[in-house]
Amino acid sequence: MKSRLCIRTSFPLRLLLLINAFTRAQLIDIEIPPMTSQTLPPLPDLFQLNQTQWATEDSKWFERDAISQAPDLIEALANVAYLANSIDDDTSSATFGWQNGGVYRSDTAYVNNVLNARLMEPLRTLSWAYTLNKPWNPYYHNAILGTRLVAVLEYWLKIQSSNGGYTEASNIGTAAAAPTTFSLQLLVDMMDELVQDNTLDTDLLNRLLTGVTKGAELCVTDQGFIDTGNRVSNQYVAIFYILWRLWQITGDTKWQTYYNNGLDAWLADAQPAPFWTENYGNEALGYSRITEWILDRLYAINGDARILESFRRYFDWCGLHVLPENDGLTFITDVVGNGRTSAPAQFGENGYYGHITKYLTTCHAWNIVYMMTEAERQQRINDWRANPIPPTGAHPGKSKAAHIYSNWPMYFEPDGLTSITPTQQQAAVADLPTAPGKPNFTRYFSQPTTIASYLFMRRDTCYVTIHFGGRSNATEAKELGIIWFPGFGTFLRGTQANIAYAYTTRVGTLSTFKEEIKDFAIPSSWAPTSDGSVQADDDLAFTTRFANVNVTKTYHINNEGFSVTTLPGAAATEQIPLYIASTDKLIIDGGVEQNVVPGIALNGQTFKIKRQTGSSFTTASLTFSRPINGTFSAGYQIAQGNIRPFSVTLVASQGLMYTFSLDA
């Protein structure tokens, strides 16, 4: 049975607001300076970096900066005035309180849209600075900041649709999942801070509560929002944090019911396979970090076992498509099935948190940015206290650094930062499913929500990922994702972002890139199990025809390697994106070693890549069934080398087989 949560909630918010209304004047006396014009007075930049301010009891606040060696907390403080002054501060303006400074999502389509709630997100910092009573925060209860914060909240509520939603578009009354959940998760925290602080107008805080609850009701009852959440995880998952916080803050068990039922339904629909869905594809490790961070943040405050299990499945998925190179510290990600992006962090680092690493050792493999010994960790903290890391310099066209919004969880939640040791990291790498000594397997996932299928095959000498499914010309691509050899590393890496770097067959202006593959079926002897695994003892051969380009392809894997046979109906080009490490050498038909140089025509039948692996060398081969003509193109940099697409000429109606293999 799935775990369902029930807790004793905090003092009900409505009653607290009522008490606050009577006691506010006795708690604090703030004099708001009179305005001599219709423009709010600007907030002066008050922050000065002074290491003597940092008390030992505040170590959880600054140790993130110390351990990550990035000035996130410091930049938050250094940007408070910049953010506060980025709003429309003309009290007679229809957009009074709107963030119009271009500090976030500053392209023209966004920055000119007065209804776009996404523009308001960085202003979350203002309530944090206004309510945080620390000697190193000069903005605590600052009167000018308070007036600007009120203007921000009033405008944020003003642009809320009547049904409780928010929009990124310019249509009045429209609402979408992403701007709604992103705004609400910020507003619910701002509301909690300000109610506990007890200095702003009770009527405003009551309206803020009404706005948050109305929006939360919309997210859990509107089928359109729910469908979006099942398809695009990071745009919806914040609703569960919002529901939990409303339950925690108000004591109303309605939010408990919404939370429990909604989370069960979302996990069933948005994570039927181990990955979280993202725009009909999968959310790759390090893509947006939103899903990972929100769920980790939620688990940190409620310990819901369902969330931990969701993470466990997700990191199992990462072990199938985030592959280590021989150093165990460099990773290359299969992005062919990604629904949104081609460039997740190559090492899979999710930077916004380290908390989940306390509970799941499987994620240690990719947590290399925060990898250090305990002595190194303490030394970084000591060094920071002696010499805090200052804010970064101004970016072009900005008066301050441009990080503004993206790192705000690091300084709004003083939970420290969980680091791991090199021993822990290497132990996790050694436990990955592709690691030497691990058993062979085949895992196949296909489900309606993503309209995509994923095949992962481990054999004695090779590991291959292949992507099938529908949605012609969708964001995600098809065919080969990665070919990887134990003891050698990545040999081929496809992409879904740019056909110039993809694995594909090109026929004139047409290609197999992103074309549908709907005729794959798991052999009957490979009966799927509940976790998506299937029997892996047999070879696999599969043929499909790309009707739009008149190309037939056969894929075949066994313990000796992986091969493809391509039969084009017309003259074509086979584009094979090989990963070439910076010290790799190319050997053609047993000839001399040479560098891989883009743009030079090559002739041969067997193309070996010689790679240094520790103190020795390992070779892998790309062997064709007949001599071919081919050319490497420039490609792009990744990991410790480059992707170099190898283009091979194909003759009409003549099949060409080529095999990827690890040499003995």
UniProtKB/TrEMBL annotation:
| Origin species | Dactylellina haptotyla (strain CBS 200.50) (Nematode-trapping fungus)
Annotated protein name in UniProt? Alginate lyase domain-containing protein
Superkingdom, natural source: Eukaryota
Q: Which UniProt keywords apply?
A: Signal
Secretion signal: which residues? 1-25
